[in-house]
Specification:
The chain has 177 residues and is mainly α. 67% of the residues lie in helices and 0% in strands. The chain is built from six helices and no strands. Helix 2 runs antiparallel to helix 3.
């Protein structure tokens, strides 16, 4: 049986988070990716490929919520790690840089749009119109989510099908596309 700090546990959590993201279940994907990232960083270190994938997937979670500043920050951290781990010309680094640029463009667009709405509505309000976004989770919230998901993750790992040695593993991940 795999322990609570086994890297396969965090990989399974990442895959589950990606599945939730694809289903549009943003809050659940976000919770799982935060918990998986916290655990995998402590076990594997900040430059491990699995941690970099989680950072990139968390950036996707933020982008789906239109939290562009957070998406850019996460993706920027992922790209820095990719440069260190894979090198500047590796396909993951290149893809990560493309996504970072997309997030920056979206952030700049959102900022321009928000500024434009503020100027148009200047006579009726002193506050710019902008999409609401939830606050960043605290460490205590991350720990609470991790603990709350322990039972779910334990069941997930226990029920995880085994892959025969002659069959290649399939891996779900944004960076693999």
């Amino acid at each position: 049986m795999l322990g609570r700090q086994h890297s396969l546990r965090f990989e399974a959590m990442n895959d589950l988070g990606v599945a939730y993201l694809r289903q549009g279940r943003l809050a659940k994907a976000f919770e799982i990716h935060i918990a998986a990232l916290a655990g995998s960083q402590s076990v594997l270190g900040p430059k491990h490929p699995q941690v970099l994938t989680l950072l990139s997937n968390l950036a996707d979670d933020y982008s789906k919520q239109q939290r562009w500043k957070d998406a850019v920050e996460c993706q920027d951290n992922a790209v820095e790690g990719m440069r260190h781990t894979y090198g500047v010309d590796h396909k993951f680094t290149t893809k990560g840089l493309q996504r970072l640029e997309e997030f920056r463009n979206s952030m700049n667009s959102a900022t321009s749009e928000s500024h434009s709405l503020y100027l148009q509505d200047d006579k009726s309000a002193d506050v710019p119109v902008s999409p609401s976004s939830p606050a960043k989770p605290t460490i205590q919230q991350i720990v609470a989510v991790t603990r709350a998901n322990d039972v779910l993750n334990q069941e997930l790992i226990q029920n995880m099908p085994t892959v025969p040695e002659d069959e290649p593993e399939s891996r779900v991940g944004v960076l693999d596309s």
